[in-house]
């Protein structure tokens, strides 16, 4: 399955290729990491689209058929579907198969996978490639969206170390910056750096629109950028936010405190305090552009 | 100064050309709207930089010299400096001169201008070209940043109608979408569509950084976009936000209400309510991309 310095799989299956799964398929092909690439899709129309893509050797509608001879299975469906698939997969995949996923929440997925895979001759290692777009669908896929982006791999205490190494090296081979973090801490971090921005973007758009729906047309680039993520798939984000609600709630509370600090500076005409808030935000924000 | 269908000025002065003033100078030259273009700058180094730019015929350090023979003066300094310059300009400009500005706040500027220009043979009309970037400085100037962007022109009841028409046609000639709105309503609108996004971006960056300064490195494109405006010039934004504090405070209060709605949906596990919030935000946000 893997040699000393290179990663290769005789067959990889992408379960539910959309924007990200399609991009992973393309990147696996470009890097020559796999022999065949199969895809599992739910409906015939999507299956046919996928069959015509150059990275995809075979696209099937039967999940068992799609995964049973693969050495690597990458689960790319929404979080709740990943949870639904894990029990079946644990019974279907062959000895030595590695299973990973791209779900934005890791605690529930990794705990569920642990329950189903712990006595099996196959291994699950959770992954979260932190990339994407407000656009959805395989037609926007591109191996470029993985390049230089963060990927958090989330081993549990019980996760097989070798399997974790192979999955990490696979993401690195696709161009990603890999960090290993346990699933619980992962969920806390992404509540702040990913889920909170989404909530704030959605809240801001609704605040303006509820105030006066004619005003939104006066948006400039600032408002467009600040709210871009609010165009993401609501069903997917509902699952993510609901599945991480304690961490997200803590993030919202902290955000409200920050807004109240600014309100207080305005109320007391405290120009120095306002300057300090804006200045410290600028210093931190400027660093993000050097960050891939 | 202007003919039936075209706008032209024998000399235009840009006071304090930075990103936006430089872009206006370039656009005026490209569109052939003016004979000479002069610039006023505060320091010798910036003056020399400006002298070397193709759109600039003369750059001077003396404000009176810069404006006294011009037919159009465009004030491109921060808001507080615009307020400082208005009294002097009202005494220096020649008969028939038009003065406009690019300040992000209009009520205070237009009221101040009205006091100083009401008995003069020259006219002030406030403008707010809604474009720019988190980048500052004349080196990032480009006439493209004006194209298809909103420009709000803010006549008061007392503003000369012909002057307002000429200023509006000038912005249109530079490629902007012009809307006329009174200064008070302008300030309320921009509190929501421009100042509130800035505050939220700064607050979000600070919230994450205060929670754990190591987490910011896990940012993806979503966090980058949501907080891009927080890299703007803190001194400029301090003036803008402080100068519009009542409207901004109302915006913050409304934003906190929106965040509390989301918290409540999480607390009660109300998936339908969360979906409705995310979905309505998406519908509105999607429209912004069709909006220039």
Give a quick summary of the entry:
The structure is a homodimer of 292-residue chains. By secondary structure, chain A is of the alpha/beta class.
Provide an overview of this structure:
The structure is a homodimer of 292-residue chains. By secondary structure, the first copy, chain A, is of the alpha/beta class. The first copy, chain A, has 2 domains: 9-181, Rossmann fold (3-Layer(aba) Sandwich); 186-288, 6-phosphogluconate dehydrogenase C-terminal fold. In chain A, 51% of the residues lie in helices and 14% in strands. Chain A contains 11 helices and 9 strands. Chain A has helices at 19-30, 44-51, 63-67, 79-92, 107-117, 161-173, 183-211, 221-227, 234-243, 245-267, 271-288; strands at residues 9-15, 34-40, 58-60, 72-75, 98-101, 123-124, 126-129, 150-154, 177-180.
Assembly category: homodimer
CATH fold-level label of the largest domain in chain A: Rossmann fold
**What CATH architecture of the largest domain in chain A would you give?**
3-Layer(aba) Sandwich
Strand order of the largest sheet of chain A: 3-2-1-4-5-6
The low-confidence runs of chain A, each spanning 5 or more residues with pLDDT under 50, are: none
Share of helix among residues of chain A? Answer: 40-55%
Q: Which strand-content bin applies to the residues of chain A?
A: 5-15%
Q: Order of helices and strands of chain A, N to C? A: EHEHEHEHEHEEEHEHHHHH
Indicate the structural class of chain A: alpha/beta
**What is the overall number of helices of chain A?**
11
CATH class of the largest domain in chain A: Alpha Beta
What is the total tally of β strands of chain A? 9
Could you name the CATH homologous superfamily of the largest domain in chain A? NAD(P)-binding Rossmann-like Domain
Distance between the termini of chain A: 31 Å
Q: Mean of residue pLDDT of chain A? A: 94
- Rg for CA atoms of chain A: 21 Å
Number of domains of chain A: 2
């Amino acid at each position: 399955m893997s040699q000393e310095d290179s990663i290769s799989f005789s067959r990889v299956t992408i379960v539910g290729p959309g924007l990200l799964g399609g991009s992973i398929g393309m990147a696996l092909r470009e890097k020559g990491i796999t022999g065949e690439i199969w895809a599992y899709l739910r409906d015939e129309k999507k299956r046919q689209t996928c069959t015509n893509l150059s990275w995809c050797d075979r696209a099937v509608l039967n999940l068992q058929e799609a995964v049973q001879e693969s050495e690597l299975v990458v689960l790319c469906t929404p979080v709740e579907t990943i949870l639904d698939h894990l029990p079946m997969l644990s019974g279907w995949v062959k000895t030595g198969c590695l299973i990973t996923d791209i779900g934005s929440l890791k605690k529930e997925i990794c705990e569920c996978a642990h329950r189903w895979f712990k006595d099996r001759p196959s291994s699950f290692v959770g992954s979260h490639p932190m990339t994407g777009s407000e656009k959805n669908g395989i037609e926007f896929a591109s191996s470029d969206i993985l390049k230089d982006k963060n990927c958090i791999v989330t081993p549990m205490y019980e996760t097989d170390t070798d399997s974790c190494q192979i999955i990490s090296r696979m993401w690195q081979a696709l161009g990603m910056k890999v960090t290993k973090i346990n699933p619980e801490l992962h969920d806390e971090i992404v509540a702040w750096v990913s889920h909170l921005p989404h909530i704030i973007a959605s809240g801001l758009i609704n605040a303006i629109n509820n105030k006066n729906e004619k005003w939104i047309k006066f948006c400039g680039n600032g408002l467009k950028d600040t709210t871009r993520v609010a165009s993401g798939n609501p069903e997917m984000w509902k699952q993510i936010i609901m599945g991480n609600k304690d961490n997200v709630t803590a993030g919202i509370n902290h955000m409200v405190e920050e807004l109240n600090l600014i309100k207080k500076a305005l109320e007391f005409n405290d120009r120095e305090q306002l300057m300090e808030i804006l200045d410290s935000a600028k210093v931190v924000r400027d660093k993000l552009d050097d960050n891939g």
